[in-house]
From TrEMBL:
The keyword Cytoplasm applies. The lineage of its organism: Eukaryota, Metazoa, Ecdysozoa, Arthropoda, Hexapoda. This is DM10 domain-containing protein. GO terms for molecular function: ATP binding; nucleoside diphosphate kinase activity. It comes from the Eukaryota. It comes from Ooceraea biroi. GO terms for cellular component: axonemal microtubule; centrosome. InterPro entries: DM10_dom (IPR006602), NDK-like_dom (IPR034907), NDK-like_dom_sf (IPR036850), NDPK7 (IPR011410), NDPk7B (IPR037993), Nucleoside_diP_kinase (IPR001564).
Length: 407
């Protein structure tokens, strides 16, 4: 039938039994929501066209991990020009930055972004150094821009890969005019009007044109001399290359360092089902509203070996162990290092109580204001993993932000 078109992607899956990274063509048929896998090594069909529970059209983009019959398949590239042309037009990928003075409002802003039909493809909190800024922007004789450079290096920023139809135009509309004071008088509902202070401390930044938004390149010294007439948006222009913050395996770019401090902290993981349901903003907002500080935040995609290793402490203890492993490796999860300003109770115990009982049904009965009561579905899909024991907090954070982020 003429409407039975398909999208084609290059994809990969790590087979833990054979210890092999298998590569496929992944075909997705929007007409009936079916998938097909073709093994590139054997040149044979690996999975005949079939339905797979839980997948949707919006799940198919570069960098996404889709779960097909318990296998976490990572999409690495487009496999044909038709797919690239069609999807790049429909689903623009842009980079957005949440600047240092809105770090305590991450949850609020993420919720606004997802409420405006953007999908978060990736996220990472980083600390830009002066050397990194100077390496990307060989700035000379622009003393009036010193305050901008100082601002960008004054604290953590959160880098976001956003996906959405007509994404660049809609992001510009959501962000508002660069000058926050002008935004408050002309576009009061925009992010810069609500959270920004002036032209420099204006809360957010993002891609401004398709070429910058979708350009994929290796990290390099940019030959650009900025003069006093260049707008602030130009100063950040080249940070809009997604590869700088989210380099793929083929990229020669070094990863921008995460912000984990590994001290007086606990680990919080927003599970894949909650990420899929666009609950990240709401959950982070609740965490920050309760007085917790998020000192590191990053999206991870773990395979079954990593998930089993991380959750090994529950093996033989909880009957749900295998299902917990399957859930954690079923798609992207968002991991946070959480701490507190005060010197109150141990943060691990305090935060575990804030998350609530493992079973959301029980949580809704006895602790209805906890995270699992509000966002959990079952004992396995209970929205949140948190460290159980005081000695586990730093170890679990280290597993993700030092070991996995270093791979």
């Amino acid at each position: 039938m003429t409407t039975d078109y398909r999208y084609a992607f290059e994809a990969e899956w790590y087979d833990k039994i054979a210890c092999l990274l298998k590569k496929f063509y992944l075909y997705y048929y929007p007409s009936d929501n079916t998938v097909e896998l073709f093994d590139l090594k054997t040149r044979k069909t690996f999975l005949k066209r079939t339905t797979s529970e839980g997948i949707q059209a919006k799940d198919f983009y570069i960098g996404a991990v889709v779960t097909i019959f318990s296998r976490s398949i990572k999409i690495t590239a487009y496999a044909d020009l038709y797919t690239e042309t069609k999807l790049e037009r429909q689903l623009q990928r842009i980079l957005a930055l949440l600047k240092p003075d809105v770090i305590d409002k991450i949850g609020e802003i993420l919720r606004i972004i997802t409420d405006h039909d953007f999908q978060i493809g990736n996220i990472k909190m980083v600390q830009l150094t002066l050397d990194q800024v100077m390496e990307c922007y060989p700035i000379k004789d622009i003393t009036d821009k010193t305050s901008l450079i100082n601002y960008l290096t004054s604290g953590p920023v959160v880098a976001l890969e956003l996906l959405g139809e007509n994404g660049i135009t809609r992001w510009q509309e959501l962000a508002g005019p660069e000058d926050s004071e002008r935004a408050r008088s002309t576009a009061a509902s925009t992010l810069r009007a609500r959270y920004g202070r002036d032209e420099i401390r204006n809360a957010v930044h993002g891609s401004e044109n398709p070429e910058v938004a979708t350009r994929v390149c290796e990290r390099r010294v940019l030959r650009m001399i900025i003069n006093i007439n260049v707008s602030i948006s130009c100063v950040l222009e080249y940070f809009q290359e997604l590869q700088y913050f989210f380099p793929d395996l083929k990229s020669k770019s070094k990863k921008v360092k995460n912000t984990a401090v590994l001290q007086n902290c606990t680990c919080c993981i927003i599970k894949p089902h909650a990420v899929q349901a666009k609950l990240v903003g709401a959950i982070v907002k609740d965490i920050q509203k309760a007085g917790y500080i998020i000192t590191a935040l990053q999206q991870f995609c773990v395979n079954s070996i990593m998930a089993a290793e991380f959750l090994e402490i529950y093996k033989g203890v909880l009957p749900e162990y295998n299902a917990m492993v399957a859930e954690l490796q079923s798609g992207p999860c968002v991991v946070m290092e959480v701490s507190r300003k005060d010197e109150g109770p141990n943060v691990v115990t305090d935060f575990r109580n804030f998350c609530g009982p493992m079973d959301p049904d029980i949580a809704r009965q006895i602790r209805p204001d906890t995270l699992r009561a509000k966002y959990g579905k079952t004992k396995v899909q209970n929205a949140i993993h948190c460290s159980d024991l005081p000695e586990d907090g730093v170890l679990e954070v280290e597993y993700f932000f030092r070991i996995l982020d270093g791979i």
